[in-house]
Amino acid sequence: MEVSEDSLSVCAHHVLVKHAYHIGGTVSSLSYSLTPQVLQPRPHFSLDVRTKSAEGLLFYAATRGGSSHMALYLSKGRIRLSVGKGREIFNREKYNDGRWHSVIFSLEKKRFRLVVNGIRAQDGQLTSDEATPMELISPLYLGSAPDSLNTELKWKLLPKQSVFGCVRNFKMNGTPMPEPTTNHGAGPCFDGQTQSGAYFSGRGAYVIINDSFVVGSSFEVVFDIRPRSLTGVLLHVGDSSRPHRGPSTGHHLSLYMHRGEVVARVNNGAGEFSVSVRPKQPLCDGMFHRVAVIKRNNVVEMHVDTEGEHKIGPSSSSSTLTKDPLYVGGIPETSMHPTLPVTGSFEGCIQNMKINEDPISFERLSGVFGPLNLRECPAG
């Protein structure tokens, strides 16, 4: 039986909370597309939430025509249900204590209901006129709603930003929801201590740092990683699959791990050259490892912890003429690059990233795709 190199040095994996997602911030959301028949006529939802946030959106669904809505959110630590054109019910208890709380909320003709930990708020009541247009439409959102709804949320006095915390066991009419249709920055949920950093859980997760990034003749990136897999894309800019014409043909800079080795590949237009380092301490030892890549003209230099290597490329070209998205953690499936030996997403924690000496704040990015947690990693 053939044993792959990856299986010889298996990374330790954290225990995840089952059927749970960590959400938080302005771009962290899950959407669920359901048929109109499933959504009608008396939607009944339930979920568990664990948060220390005092404010933030948990669930949002618009109605046909957009004049009404159904929204679950936190305000001053209280869980509130807003229905119709802003009618609200809530319990006086505060639930932002970092413990799990069960929430049931439903809509039945003119009546809407909220139950938290078995305690029922006073039912809400709609008028006949308000109840008529209360047909929820797909998609439903957990976490933040998309930018296109921001004006609507503001007008309805609802938070745009998701709560920071975990949601699990999202059900409709007693049935567990299918996998979300889209996931923008809703990562795994962990028990135990956490620390700052961005946690990428593989499975197609990536961020876009800059939509139109120029590498040019000089480029520098430095960051710390604690991987949970020995193979995956760390950073990529440019298009190695571009048709062979024009001045920027094949220009790219790629940084990835391949079976425990860190590799940087560069093409300034005159052919590819690469440098690789296999650190003395294995990448999967549960510790953070410092990675630095410096490109100056046709020379690329890499350091992983105390190990360093450099490579001189073709002297006929020195500038990497990219004007493409700068990806970190992975690349979209739609733009798989045939010359890259690794296209799978990185799995693990990234901290303290600087590009050309500018600190990267993952929490503030708008281009966030797949299951990742922009704010925290499991400790240890």
Give the uncertain stretches in residue-range form.
1-8
The radius of gyration over CA amounts to 24 Å
The largest sheet is: 8 strands, antiparallel
| Termini separation | 33 Å
How many alpha or pi helices? 4
- What would the average pLDDT be, to the nearest integer? 88
Query: What fraction strand?
Result: over 45%
| Shape category | elongated
Structural class: mainly beta
- Total number of strands: 32
- Give the helix level as a range of percent: under 10%
Helices and strands, with pairings:
Layout: H1 5-8, E1 20-25, E2 29-32, H2 36-39, E3 44-51, E4 56-62, E5 69-75, E6 78-84, E7 87-90, E8 100-108, E9 111-116, E10 119-120, E11 124-125, H3 128-131, E12 140-143, H4 150-155, E13 162-172, E14 175-176, E15 182-184, E16 194-196, E17 198-201, E18 206-213, E19 218-227, E20 232-238, E21 252-258, E22 261-267, E23 272-277, E24 289-296, E25 299-304, E26 307-312, E27 324-328, E28 347-355, E29 358-359, E30 367-369, E31 372-373, E32 376-378
Antiparallel strand pairs: 1-13, 2-12, 2-15, 3-8, 3-13, 4-5, 4-12, 5-6, 6-7, 8-9, 9-10, 9-11, 13-14, 16-32, 17-28, 17-31, 18-27, 18-30, 19-24, 19-28, 20-21, 20-27, 21-22, 22-23, 24-25, 25-26, 28-29
